[in-house]
Amino acid sequence: MVDDLLGITGASDLENRSQAVLDACGEILGQIKSRAGEASGRDGTLRPLDEIQARLGDTRRTICLIRSVHPAADLREAAERCERMLADFASELALDRDLYEAVKECDPGALDAEGRRLREHLLRDFRRSGVDRDEATRDEIHQLHRELVELGQEFSRNILQDVRSIRLDGLEELAGLPDDYIAAHPPGEDGRITITTEYPDYNPFMVYARSSSRREELYRAFRSRAFPANIAVLRRILQRRHRLASLLGYSSWADYAAEDKMIGSAKAIGEFIERVAAAAARRSSREYRSLLDRKRRDDPSAAEVYDWEKSYYEELLRIEQYRIDSREIRPYLGYDAVKAGVFDFAARLFGLEFRPAPEVPRWHEEVEVLDVLEGGSLRGRIYLDTHPREGKYKHAAMFPIVHGVRGGRRPAAALVCNFARPESGGGSALLDHDDVVTFFHEFGHLLHHLLGCETDWVQFSGTSTEWDFVEVPSQLLEEWAWEPEVLQSFARHHKTGEVIPSDLVQRLRRARDFGRGLQVRQQMYYARLSLDYHDRAPETLDVERLSRELHSRYSLFGFVDGTHFEASFGHLEGYSALYYTYMWSMVIEKDLFSRFRERGLFDPEMARLYRRKILERGGSLDAADLVRDFLGRDYRFDAYEEWLDGERSVQ
Ligand SMILES: [Zn+2]
Question: 3-state class of 397 per DSSP?
Fold first, then answer.
């Protein structure tokens, strides 16, 4: 139904199609209301309402994808307009009192368990939207939603469009970088080389470039993106979120946002962050000390390690202590081989097959479309858009397109990444092992979306579970990207065809533990920033100062004056106060993975249980219940703490 939107080329077509969806939804809404007072229940109210959610949701998700990846700027702009229009309708729907009454009237006694859960969730969401407030308040809420959509778009757009760069004087300043990176960055006519703040440029440069001053320059450029523009936008966003939360009867946006998550409250988020930060304290200090000791071999008078030196010295330590050099692995990780490896893995664990569907419309010729089959029958469709382009979303993410349900709509989703592109004139695009981990991660989301269709309701399909559970399936899949058996199934030298040596994989696994404590502390800086921006009255808040203070509290690397991370912290838009969710999910993930470790990573019974008890159920049960059903007990912190303490850390 929305598939053909993905091949659309005219901006006005996009707007007309969005309008048509709204008209259709409006008509269904009218029918629900016309039956008000009758005993309409499941078929008269819940079913058509779910249909509205399906149509509206599919269209919104597709438009969001187009806005994020379409090569034509006018289409991306039109998508922004459509997004506002659709969000506006969704906001009206959430504040529609007649609809609320109709849902309330559905007799729970006449519904099955899933139907009752749906009714409860709908009523909860209506109340959280403010449907039971007076008319003036509802108008203000609606206006605030509208402004927040626009501000959110502006915040993201400012980050997306602000690509900065530094200019190197010549090839000698690329010393340390891998050959394929150097080949992809030839000097211009003036002999100078441009390095941008885009990830495929930025990340390797921070790891490998020997020139510390150039790394510092690039780091400063990277941490100045969207500054100063986004500071003002951020202030407006925080102010409006706070106002919205107050209107709805909450003391802060953070409390509002946490209420329907596993964690439950802002206070619990704060406690969780402190618990994790404390658990990582000893290890991170030890790791920092190792970096400083290493730096002192280059510069005996060094008193600290700067933030732009972190990745560089981490890499040096990995090379020297674990004899592992990321550049040594890259030749084994050709993009096509990795992709085939991920597909084979999904076939082996879940019996899925992927078949190219070249006739299906898509937004760019590089996008690959594949049908997903199981036992010969069609289960869904995926779109792979995996290389960077100008104007394209910069991170890696799974974008749901169609949410599937039992015996009905088939799921579709796009996997959007920014892996290095094959050099022009052939050659193989080589990935870092980190990219392979990212591929598995996003594929974990994709599988959750594709398989999570054992529900009657779109509302509960796939990844529509509690937000702080969403990263569990993706983080779990990352574990396989470190397994020798998995890596050796696809990683072959792109020139010689040699399988990645066991010894290299073993060294890679040993080296991965280093830096874990530092990374967790860094994550807690992000999580605390996200929380603290939203747990107080915005009038008292100095967003720049708070960012600086929290950086100093959680990161072991000194704050670099003149940088403004908060201006390009894209998650503040989508996640608001909830950045903690990544680490929260990881606590659960480590617990689940301990079962696979006991029983074997390819144990068919474990794969079946995990699929049946967790993935397939989507959001049709509380996440804590899914986990209890799988583990046979509640989740615990133990496996995570063991992972964090790690026996193999550097002394
Ligand atoms: Zn994820």
Answer: strand
CA distance 131 to 482: 48
CA 393 – ligand 1 centroid, Å: 15
612 domain-assigned: no
Say which CATH number the domain at 444 has: 1.10.1370.40
Same domain for 378 and 485, yes or no, is yes
CA 470 to centroid of ligand 1, rounded, Å: 7
- Whether 216 and 116 map to the same domain: the answer is no
CA 464 / ligand 1 centre spacing (Å): 14
**CA of 443 relative to ligand 1 center, distance in Å:** 9
Tell how far the Cα of 397 is from the centroid of ligand 1, in angstroms.
7
Q: Does 437 share its domain with 353?
A: yes
Distance 442 CA to ligand 1 centre (A): 6
Q: 179 is in which domain, residue-wise?
A: 163-222
Q: Tell me which residue has tokens 């703490």.
A: 641
Is 398 part of any domain? yes
Ion ligand 1 — residues with CB < 5 Å: 471, 474
Flag whether 465 is in a domain: yes
Query: Do 441 and 480 meet the contact criterion of CB atoms below 8 Å apart?
Result: no
Q: Which residues pair with 314 in a beta bridge?
A: none
The domain boundary, picked from 204, 222, 240, lies at 222
Tell me: pLDDT of 220 over 70. Answer: yes
Q: Any idea what DSSP says for residue 43?
A: I
Distance, CA 520 to ligand 1 centroid (Å)?
16
112 CA → ligand 1 middle, Å: 32
Same domain as 200, residue 101: no
Rounded to the nearest integer, the mean pLDDT of the chain is 94
d(CA 462, CA 453): 6
CATH code for the domain in which residue 77 is found? 1.20.1050.40
pLDDT value for 606: 96
Considering the chain, what percentage of its residues have pLDDT values greater than 70?
98
168 φ, ψ (degrees, to nearest 5): -90, 150
**Per-residue tokens: 244:** 């919205």
Mean of the pLDDT values across residues 266-274? 98
- Does 349 lie in the same domain as 480? yes
Q: Which two tokens stand for residue 649?
A: 């850390």
Query: How many Å lie between the centroid of ligand 1 and the Cα of residue 477?
Result: 11
For strand 377-385 and strand 412-416, is the pairing parallel, antiparallel, or unpaired? parallel
CA of 594 to the centre of ligand 1 (A): 20
Domain assignment present for residue 42? The answer is yes
Calculate how far, in angstroms, residue 212's C-alpha sits from the geometric centre of ligand 1. 32
From ligand 1's centre to the CA of 436, what distance in Å? 14
Based on the domain organization, do 369 and 489 belong to the same domain? yes
Helix (H) or strand (E) holding 381: strand 377-385
Distance 498 CA to ligand 1 centre (A): 32
Digit-coded pLDDT (tens) for 140-178: 999 999 999 999 999 999 998 899 999 999 999 999 998
CA 474–ligand 1 middle distance (angstroms) = 6
Q: Please tell me the predicted confidence (pLDDT) of residue 35.
A: 82
Report the pLDDT value the prediction gives residue 50, as an integer from 0 to 100: 96
Q: Are residues 79 and 171 in the same domain?
A: no
| 410 and 381 Cβ atoms separated by less than 8 Å | yes
What is the Å distance from ligand 1's center to 445 Cα?
7
CA 435 to centroid of ligand 1, rounded, Å = 13
Bond before 388 cis per omega within 30 degrees: no
